[in-house]
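Predict structure. Chain length: 62.
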Amino acid sequence: PQSHKLAKKDCYFKMKVHKEECQKKDKQLKLSLPGKEGEQSQTIKKVSLRGEFSPQGRGKAI
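Prediction complete.
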């Protein structure tokens, strides 16, 4: 049970870090591509869709 608990914690932590990195990438994309609004929104949609399946995805229900 102990190792299972640790594995669960580790997985949660990795997901948290991954999510934060995704959000950082989103911000960088928004900053670096002010002229390409159309392509921009498409990449963000793909990222947010991927996060949608986790229980506390991004708060946006599609």
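Summary: Helices lie at 2-32, 37-51.
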